[in-house]
């Protein structure tokens, strides 16, 4: 098949493209590199500047690229909002893509009208971006920003148009599957995130200090719970200064982020998630233990009844602190959790197996 991916989050499209290419498909990835993260792509669609003139230049670049975006068997958008243009221009481009290609899929990989609407009006989870238990998080600036951006706006209406029109919606996390299947039960299909699995890493624990890694997106710390996890981590460091080290990657490009992760034992990530996302999965493939989202529901969706590599925490600082301290004081657990982490990724997220599942979805639609 000839496949076009437009947009990028967390290196999902590039990793999936590598898997599909290995299976004999021709894949082109067009993206802006996901802003400062600078993930790899075949065609760069980065907008340089936010002035009116830079917008005109960017729009002309997109128009010139459209001739390269036709004649594909599959076009997949990372999100309805995948190009740095206002929604009415994106709708025009979407219609062009629909007219000039065979099938269009849109990933349930991030935020859009459906994610925000379900968060506000459907109690699908015990906690998440929009509430914890019975407490709403609508006073949180980033949550408010999501609401203002998608609800009762042209962008939100454009999102609804795209999701209703597209041929299929692949979801990558337990939460996204539950959310989008509640609106589009026939079109939504859960497929795990793709991770490029390399040679088996050394999973033995070399002894203290335990090296903790935390990746920080400074613009989204509070909505992801990184602020809370960091506070718990710094308390641990203060109490056990010789037993642990803390490695912080703050707004680092992807290549440097991965280098900083090397040699760490534990990654702390995704406080409000039921499921590990790309960053913790990439860490787990290297034998790094994840402290974060690992609820029973996500294991059940994967059909995993043996491995339990993720140290699941509740969405509060004390739960994170206790989990970190328990691991620090029982280092005999570390080697086994490292081994299970690698096996978990190999079993459920290997990029070649994931690519095969996408291939089947594309061909069945």
Quantity of strands, as a count: 14
The whole-number mean of residue pLDDT values reads 94
Count of separate DSSP helical elements: 15
Low-pLDDT regions: none
Shape: globular
CATH topological fold name of the largest domain: Rossmann fold
The gyration radius over C-alpha positions equals 21 Å
CATH superfamily of the largest domain, called what? Glycogen Phosphorylase B
What is the CA–CA distance across the termini? 13 Å
Main β sheet profile: 5 strands, parallel
Query: From the coordinates shown, what is the CATH architecture of the largest domain?
Result: 3-Layer(aba) Sandwich
Domain module tally: 2
Order of helices and strands: EHEEHEHEHEEHHEHEEHHEHEHEHEHHH
- The proportion of residues forming helix, as a percent range, comes to 40-55%
- Strand order in the largest sheet: 3-2-1-4-5
Kindly summarize this structure in a few lines.
This protein is of the alpha/beta class and about 375 residues long. The protein is about 45% helix and about 15% strand. It has helices at about 10-20, 50-65, 85-100, 115-120, 140-150, 155-165, 175-180, 220-225, 225-240, 255-260, 280-285, 295-300, 315-330, 335-350, 350-365; strands at about 1-5, 25-30, 45, 75, 105, 130, 135, 170, 190, 210-215, 245-250, 265-270, 290, 310.
Describe this structure in words.
The chain has 365 residues and is of the alpha/beta class. The protein has two domains: 2-123 and 154-194 and 351-364, Rossmann fold, CATH 3.40.50.2000; 210-348, Glycogen Phosphorylase B (Rossmann fold, 3-Layer(aba) Sandwich), CATH 3.40.50.2000. Helices cover 44% and strands 15% of the residues. It is built from 15 helices and 14 strands. The protein has helices at 12-22, 52-65, 87-100, 113-121, 141-150, 154-165, 174-181, 221-224, 226-239, 254-261, 278-285, 296-302, 317-329, 334-348, 351-364; strands at residues 2-6, 26-31, 43-44, 74-77, 103-106, 131-132, 135-136, 169-171, 188-190, 210-216, 244-250, 266-269, 289-292, 311-312. The strands form four sheets. A five-stranded parallel sheet has the order 3-2-1-4-5, with helices on one face. Strands 11-10-12-13-14 form a five-stranded parallel sheet, sandwiched between helices. Helix 3 links the parallel strand 4 and strand 5 (103-106). Helix 1 packs across helix 15 (351-364), helix 9 (226-239) packs across helix 13 (317-329) and helix 11 crosses helix 14 (334-348). The longest helix has 15 residues, at 334-348. The protein is globular, with a radius of gyration of 21 Å. The two termini are 13 Å apart. The mean pLDDT is 94.
């Amino acid at each position: 098949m000839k496949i076009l991916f437009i947009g990028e989050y967390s290196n999902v499209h590039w990793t999936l493209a590598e898997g599909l290419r290995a299976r004999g498909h021709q894949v082109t990835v067009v993206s802006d590199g996901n802003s400062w993260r600078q993930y790899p792509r075949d065609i760069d669609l980065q907008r340089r500047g936010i002035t009116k003139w830079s917008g005109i230049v960017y729009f002309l670049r997109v128009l010139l690229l459209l001739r390269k975006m036709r004649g594909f068997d599959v076009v997949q958008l990372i999100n309805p909002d995948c190009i740095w243009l206002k929604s009415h221009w994106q709708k025009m481009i979407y219609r062009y893509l629909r007219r000039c290609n065979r099938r269009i899929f849109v990933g349930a990989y991030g935020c859009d009208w459906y994610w925000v609407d379900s968060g506000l009006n459907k109690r699908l989870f015990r906690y998440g971006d929009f509430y914890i238990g019975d407490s709403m998080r609508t006073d949180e600036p980033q949550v408010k920003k999501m609401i203002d951006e998608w609800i009762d706006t042209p962008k939100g209406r454009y999102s609804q148009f795209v999701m209703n029109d597209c041929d299929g919606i692949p979801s990558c996390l337990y939460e996204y599957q539950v959310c989008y299947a509640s609106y589009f039960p026939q079109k939504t299909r859960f497929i795990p995130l793709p991770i490029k699995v390399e040679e088996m890493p050394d999973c033995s624990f070399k002894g203290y200090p335990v090296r903790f890694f935390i990746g920080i997106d400074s613009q989204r710390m509070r909505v992801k719970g990184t602020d809370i996890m960091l506070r718990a981590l710094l308390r641990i460091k203060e109490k056990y200064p010789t037993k642990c080290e803390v490695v912080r990657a703050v707004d680092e490009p992807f290549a440097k982020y991965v280098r900083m992760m090397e040699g760490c034992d534990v990654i702390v990530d995704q406080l409000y998630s039921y499921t590990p996302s790309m960053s913790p999965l990439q860490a787990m493939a290297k034998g790094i233990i994840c402290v974060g989202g690992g609820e029973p529901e996500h294991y059940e969706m994967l059909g995993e009844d043996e491995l339990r590599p993720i140290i699941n925490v509740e969405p509060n600082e004390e739960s994170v602190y206790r989990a970190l301290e328990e691991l620090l004081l029982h280092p005999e657990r570390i080697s086994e959790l490292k081994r299970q982490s690698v096996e978990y990724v190999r079993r459920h997220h290997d990029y070649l197996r994931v690519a095969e599942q996408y291939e089947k979805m594309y061909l069945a639609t």
